[in-house]
Amino acid sequence: MSLLAFDNKKESPVGGLLDNAQRQKVANSKLSKLLKTLLYTQKQLEEKVHFPQLTEENLTTGKLVLPEKK
Question: How far apart are CA 2 and CA 26, in angstroms?
């Protein structure tokens, strides 16, 4: 909210939050937690349903893999 009060947002007291380094830091932290949650949830769900999944090996490509039925 405080950024709205400044014409030049990068020079405001909280302007550092707009830097790419800060954005990357926040994004990396949140993305890591999101991916861990996704992998955990898939593991829980695969006990009940057969579906295409992301694996640790293909997280960077986003390719879904249909695992073999147990």
Answer: 19
